[in-house]
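Run log // design_07
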């Protein structure tokens, strides 16, 4: 059993009403002999999400991680957590590309792709 298996098992029965925090997950992993920091727990969850596992989260007080139970759960998470980050990153890249073109007086677009 790996740390990610422990994390996933702990999250599988959690809902938005009963999420589990990264601190609790790190402590649980430690009880199984894995010395994971809260940052490493977040990284493991990020990797599981990249594998398509529908782990959702809420950042409010008492927040934490839980499993998606419906398309509505997923879409709410997608539209309030993922989409704003993607848009922010696109905006940042666009503005930095513009600044690089001005700063280096070249058509950076062709070189950026």
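design_07 sequence
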């Amino acid at each position: 059993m790996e740390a990610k298996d422990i994390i996933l098992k702990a999250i599988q029965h959690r809902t938005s009403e009963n999420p589990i925090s990264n601190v609790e997950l790190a402590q649980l992993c430690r009880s199984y002999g894995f010395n994971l920091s809260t940052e490493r727990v977040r990284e493991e969850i990020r990797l599981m999400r990249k594998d398509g596992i529908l782990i959702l989260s809420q950042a409010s007080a008492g927040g934490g991680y839980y499993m998606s139970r419906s398309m509505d759960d997923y879409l709410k998470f997608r539209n309030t957590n993922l989409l704003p980050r993607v848009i922010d990153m696109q905006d940042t890249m666009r503005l930095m590309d513009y600044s690089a073109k001005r700063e280096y007086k070249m058509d950076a677009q062709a070189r950026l792709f």
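The longest strand covers residues 55-58.
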